[in-house]
Every structure is written in structure tokens, then in C-alpha cells.
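Our collaborator T.R. sent over the components below with a one-line note: 'Predict the complex.' Nothing else. No constraints on interfaces, no templates requested, no preferences about which chain binds where. So this is a plain run: every listed entity goes in together, and whatever single assembly comes back becomes the starting point for the next discussion.
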Amino acid sequence: MKKLINNVDDILNESLTGFGQVHGDLLTVNLEPKVVTRADAPLAGKVALISGGGSGHEPLHAGFVGHGMLTACCPGEVFTSPTPDQMLAAAQAVNGEAGILFIVKNYSGDVMNFEMAAEMAADMGLQVETVLTNDDVAVEDSTFTQGRRGVAGTVVVEKIVGAAAEAGASLANCKALGDRVNQASGSMGVALTSCTVPAAGQPTFNLGEGEMELGVGIHGEPGRERIALPSANEIAATIVNAICDDLAPAAGQEALLFVNGMGGTPAMELFLMYNAAAQVCAERKVTVARSLVGNYCTSLDMQGCSLTLTLLDEETKALWDAPVHTAALRW
Amino acid sequence: MKKLINNVDDILNESLTGFGQVHGDLLTVNLEPKVVTRADAPLAGKVALISGGGSGHEPLHAGFVGHGMLTACCPGEVFTSPTPDQMLAAAQAVNGEAGILFIVKNYSGDVMNFEMAAEMAADMGLQVETVLTNDDVAVEDSTFTQGRRGVAGTVVVEKIVGAAAEAGASLANCKALGDRVNQASGSMGVALTSCTVPAAGQPTFNLGEGEMELGVGIHGEPGRERIALPSANEIAATIVNAICDDLAPAAGQEALLFVNGMGGTPAMELFLMYNAAAQVCAERKVTVARSLVGNYCTSLDMQGCSLTLTLLDEETKALWDAPVHTAALRW
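Returned assembly:
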């Protein structure tokens, strides 16, 4: 294993400390327990959006804490759920007295811990709702998941609901909107190489030279099948068609096309994949109205990418366009 | 070789096409010859900033075309200089009648071709000056370079001079400022893995398990030495000390600390490296007044990073802070 680290046990603390120094104008990093909060939180009268999950998917979620997106997040150890006490500390720190929305990727550990935190928060008189993201159309059930996995579509949910919360939407409306955006989103990923979890010290899985994992999860979970590496156009066709079969968009439907790098993929290849995917969208009569390309929901050093389509309406398009000021997303 | 591509010969065109679609609000991509220009160029009365070089370093340079930074850039084939006709086409397209500044990384092919383009432009009555960046303190002379290589410090030059040009600085002042920022910048990189040039189909160099190339170039050129992979703290100390020995900052001197990913490095490791480097800066009595962390001057899929320090004064600090609106840098 080759990584730019000191001791495996210190990676998360050292990385979060650096992140907090670089982005101290936007957010505050707390290490005991690990919670990242907006610098201007709590925001009185606004719903607080809290996400979190295992680390190793950066910039998800800490890179999305800021104006118009998350109010706080709880980073777990690499590929390990954060604990309920982190979530509760986040809720207490950013509670603006308008309710708290947990945005949770559908992995059993995260779901269980966020449920426990929601109960503890309710016991303390806090109003809590939860949006569970499960946009990955690749497989039903997986290594760490019952049902579909939550992957890059989570970024879209966080952006759109974040804009609504910033504008003063109620907790019920934020919850309904998050569910709606999640249901309008489909994603699927491919891996050309495995990630290497620092504590494991070796690749999570092995791919032969010339092999690709189709439908891989963001922790290296198995996908649909292991195949000979196809062309970019073939990969784009397989994924966009799988997503469109799932979402069943009407002809002319507007969508966000989001090409997400897994961490080790050159930008040049991500934009090439965008070009390929946009062509398949046109064939499927999906109108690409918005786009996003880059590393947003990664899997450590994995080479590969995922494609996400989110079907948009006028409301969600306007919320996507609303100003956002975070470490990783800004307009 | 595993890459998300169709045919090797089409990579650049397809990638630039995707890039142009995603960022069409900011810029225009022309493929024959390959030139990326600001959507609002030419800007009457403002110096036009034009950079360029081999592709494979994305987002450098196309990701920096926009308000407050580059007016145009010329992407060459992967790790190959663009041609004088690209540079001339760029100069003609964005000429605002206030002069043209070429920002050129010090590689023999780029230097030769930009010189030729400058002569051709002068013959057509255009005023052209050139800033040559050579911030890499690792080695004198290299595979493709006489003298020091231009690496990630080029991003800093483009940002600061771009802000000055946007504010209406003269060609002579932009040229002098660019030279000054370059001289105030030092960089050095490390590679944990080689990049793989698509047309070559195999890694540019081979590193053994547990080995690192110290002082690597952004095309995989050899550095100072090949050593057993040290800790992040040791790497940061070696690099920051080498840069400080070169720049000889006064005690308390303010600087920008820039941790640049080589393309295949997880964000988590880059922020950890920032944390390590900031500590060494404190030991060297350099005050980190500004920071930047991310993939900005890459080497395809190489794992590793570079550190850059740019010594700042009040003028350059204000120009660094000035608004920028490009695909890869925005505030």
C-alpha cells in the first residue's frame, strides 16, 4: 500500500485538521466527536441538514457543508458509519429550532446509527426527519446494504434540499423534496481498479488486466458483472440505458447529467465520459438541462466513474441553480 | 492500460467537446485548431492572457479560462506542446488591443513554439510579451527542459496576473508581475505511481512496491532520487525545506501554501499533506496566509502530490483574493 500518510490510525484526524485549516472561513471542524459544522450555524428558523457516513468518499460530505447545502456532517472512520453520538452532537450544535433533516445513504450501519440518533434527538425534544438515498440502480441488496445503495445521487439531494432549507422551507417540505429528488435520481458506477482501505493495507478486490467491474459500489462492493473493459461509449450506453429503464423519463424530459470520478480518474476521462453519456441521453430523448463533472463521491483511490441522472422539474432546476458556497461546490 | 476512452486518437477531441458542453457559459472550445477562449473575449482594452501546453495536466490550463484568469489557452496532445498556429489563432481570437501575454511553462517544445508564435504575432502587429514559469526546485535541467521546470506554480501566476489583467493592468505591468510571482514561487512533487500516457499504453516509469520518486516532473521526468516511501510528515519536511532554502523567505513572511494532487491521489491524503506542510512552514517561520488544496496541475493518473509556496506581498495577496470565475477555480 502506498499512501501519503503518517500512521493509519491518525489519517482521519490529520486530514480533517488540514481541511478545517483550509476552509475555516466556511466551517468548523470538531474532532471529539468528529463533527463538521457551518461557520454560521445554528441558523435560526431554518431547517438544519445533517449528513454523514464513512470517510473515504471526499469531498462527500464535509466538502458540502456551507451556504445552500449541508449545515453539518459527521465523518466516520474510512468506510465505517459514524456513531449516534456524533450525529446527536451535530444536531445539538446546528439546531435552528425549525427541525433537523438527516440525509442518509442506504447502508445498514448508517441507517441503524442515524435511526438511533433520531430517537435520542426526539427524546431531547428535537424534531427529526430522515431522507434515505438509494439511487444506485446497479443491484438490489449488496455487501453492506439491504435494498439499493445510496451513491452519488446523494450529492444532488444535498444540493437541492440545501437550497430549499436555505430559502426557509419547512421540515416537512424538505423531507418530501429530498424523497422526491432521490426517487428522480439513478446512478451506476464502474471500477477499473480497486480502492485500498488504509487499515486493510491491500486492495479490496482484484481486477485482472483489462477487466472492469460494472455496477461497483463506492466501497468496492460487487456490481452486476465483471467484464472485459468496454469502450467509453459502450460503458455510457450501458449505464445511461440502465438508469433510463429505471427512471422511465418521458420524451423530452429535462435532467441533470452528473459524471462523478471515483478518486483516481483523470479529469480528461471524466469529460470524455460526459461527452459519451450526453450522446446516449439524446438517443433516449432525455434533455440534458444541467451538468456536473468531477470528483464528488469518491471511493479513495479507485479508478472509474459513476453516472447519475436526476430528472428535473422547474422547482428542482431552480433549486439546483440557487447559490451554493461550500468547499467542493460553489456557484 | 485501463482508461475510460474510445480510441486513443480521439481522446483529446472527445474530452474537450465534453468540457465545452459542461462549461459553455464560461468558454468556447474550438477544435480546429484547438483553442479554448473566454466566452466574453475579446475584452477591449484589457491585456489578453494566453497559456497552453500538453494535455494531461487538467484542469491546467482550460479549467482556468474565464473571468479573472486566462483569456484563452491552447491544449496540445497529451504531454506534447501545442503548435504555433494554435497560439496565433488564440492571440487573434482574444486580442483586446492592449497586448498579449503568453504564460509558458519552461519545457523546450513549449518555449520554442510560443517563441515562434510570438514572432508571427509581432509580424501581424500584435504586442506580445512572455512569462516563463520555472518554479520546480527539484532539479536543474530535465528530460524536456533546460533549466528548471514549470509546474504547479504556473496556476498561481495565472491567477494573480489574471486578476491584474482583469483590473486593467498594462502589458508591461502584467509581464513584470508574472515574472515576480514566478520568482516568488517554489514547488516540488513526489510520485507514488507513474502516469500512463494513452498513446504509449504503459506506465512512463516503474516504481517498486514501497518506492517513491522525490522531485518528479509532471510528465514523470526523474526527480532528485528514488527512495523508500517516507511518512507524510517527512515528505512535507523535505519539500518545504527545499523550497524555503530556494526562496529564502524572511521570518514571518506571508505565503500561499498550495497542495496539488497529481491526478490519482485521494482528497483525504491531500488535506493530510496540507496539515503536515503547514507545520513545517510554521517551523520555518513562514506564515501561511492563503491556501489551496486539490487537483490543479496533474499528471494524468499519477498518484502523488506537489507542494508550492508563493511568497506574498499586499499586492499579490489582494490579486489572489480577487474574484475568479473559471471551471476549476472560483471565488
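Summary for T.R.: Residues 8-184+322-326 of chain A form a domain with the Rossmann fold fold (CATH 3.40.50.10440).
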